[in-house]
Amino acid sequence: MKQILTDEFKRATFGEARNAQEALDLVWKQEWDVVVLDITMPGRSGLDALREIKKSKPRLPVLVLSMHPENQFAVRVLKAGASGYMTKESAPEELVDAVKKVFAGGRYVSAALGETLAASLSISHRAPQEKLSDREFQVLRLIASGKMATKIARELSLSVKTISTYRTRILEKMGMKNNAELMHYAIQHRLVE
User: Fold this and answer.
1) Are 99 and 63 within 8 A, CB to CB?
2) 2-122 has which fold?
3) Closest among 145, 180, 143, 178 to 163, alpha carbons compared
4) 128-188: which CATH number, 1.10.10.10, 1.20.1530.20, 1.20.120.530, 3.90.800.10?
5) Contacts made by residues 129-135, CB under 8 angstroms, sequence distance 24+
6) Which residue ranges make up each domain of the chain?
7) Residue 138's pLDDT band (boundaries 50, 70, 90)?
8) Mean pLDDT for the chain overall
9) What is the 3-state secondary structure (H, E, C) of the chain?
10) Alpha-carbon span 24 to 15, nearest angstrom
11) What is the pTM of this model?
């Protein structure tokens, strides 16, 4: 990805981070024109990093590049303040076009996502997972991937009781009775790998 951008933006300076905290440190310590951010990183999620970036530098354009399909995260990251969302499967030219667009102050979404967003304006029915807060959605994905509450609590630096509360809210909002139903739904709707 860096090579693609280096070839197009020859005089640009690039920074790289291995995790969300390193990305945040770079954003806070230096002036950047655009941030290209992944959702799935070690430690804190890219969604958490996006929120932090938008709090401290609301005008800094953030393009989210993810391995997750658009239907899983795109609307969520756009609502959190991202200037665009694209999957890693996208063509290299699309990455260059997306960076140019968000740098110029625009928003970038694929044609398919644009159609989905337009269709959602006329449809009042929302998918059950769209009723969840970002943290609830994160906990849903961890439960659906088979992780126990203690491991989820440790991973998110929360108490087991807090995870249990999130689980109860998730079940309630999604109209489900147990983890098995959550797992089945998440797998069926490709919310987990």
Assistant:
1) yes
2) Rossmann fold (3.40.50)
3) 143
4) 1.10.10.10
5) 129/174, 129/189, 129/191, 130/75, 131/173, 131/174, 132/170, 132/173, 132/174, 134/47, 134/51, 134/76, 134/80, 135/166
6) 2-122, 128-188
7) very high
8) 87
9) CHHHHHHHCCCCCCCCCCCHHHHHHHHHHCCCCCEEECCCCCCCCHHHHHHHHHHHCCCCCEEEEECCCHHHHHHHHHHCCCCEEEECCCCHHHHHHHHHHHHCCCCECCHHHHHHHHHHHHCCCCCHHHHCCHHHHHHHHHHHCCCCHHHHHHHHCCCHHHHHHHHHHHHHHHCCCCHHHHHHHHHHCCCCC
10) 11
11) 0.65
pLDDT tens per residue, range 88-109: 888 778 889 999 999 999 999 8
The residue count of the chain comes to 193
Provide Rg for the chain, Cα atoms: 18
From residue 124, alpha-carbon distances to 74, 131, 148 in Å are 18, 13, 34
pLDDT value of position 158: 92
